[in-house]
Amino acid sequence: MGLLDSFEKGLERAVNSAFAKTFRSGIQPVEIASALRREADTKAAVVSRDRIITPNSYVVRLSPDDAERMLALGGALTDELHALLTTHAKSQGYSFSGPLSISLEADESITTGTVRVTSGTVEGRVSWQAVVDVDGRRHALTRARTIVGRGSDADITISDAGSSRKHVEILWDGERAMMRDLGSTNGTKVNGEKLREAALPTDTTITIGRTDLVFKIVPITAPARPARPRDDDATRAFGVI
Question: What mean pLDDT comes out for the span 46-73?
Answer without folding.
Answer: 87
